[in-house]
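User:
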Amino acid sequence: MKIIEALKSVKDLHRKADDIVEKIKKHCADLDCETQIYPDQKRQVAEWLQAHSDVLKEILRLKTALLRTNLATNVTIELGNKQVTKSIAEWIERRRSLSELELNAWSALTDRGLKETYENKLTPNSPATSIKRRLYFDPVERDEKREMYRSEPSKIDATLEIVNATTDLI
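Assistant: Predicted structure:
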């Protein structure tokens, strides 16, 4: 089974589990003046409970296999003209939040709106002073990093779509 198949199966199993819970809620009790919907309603409810438990076991099995596969499978993505290799699990985490945090850090590098100025003489004997702005970072590097981190999520998505369709579960 491929990763994408497992992901879709988990989603479908969650839907099945929800459907079973709705049946249990609807048929777990009635009044003695009502007609039972099922010939042996107590047995039917017990079967639904067992089916729900079986569905949850299969979800756990698939999710565990997905986790195992995501940790064991390395994927290489080109970022900033470099080939970067990480496990699928690491790429997922980068996609969820870390690339945005990196972008935020590089985006914090600004000139803070500081203006260079030229001060006139404070006293008749003092020289005029030029106040220059100092940057403690390379603006070209900042711009390159910002672009790299902006595009990283889409590169991760594109690569993982292919990996999910071609990689077998462990």
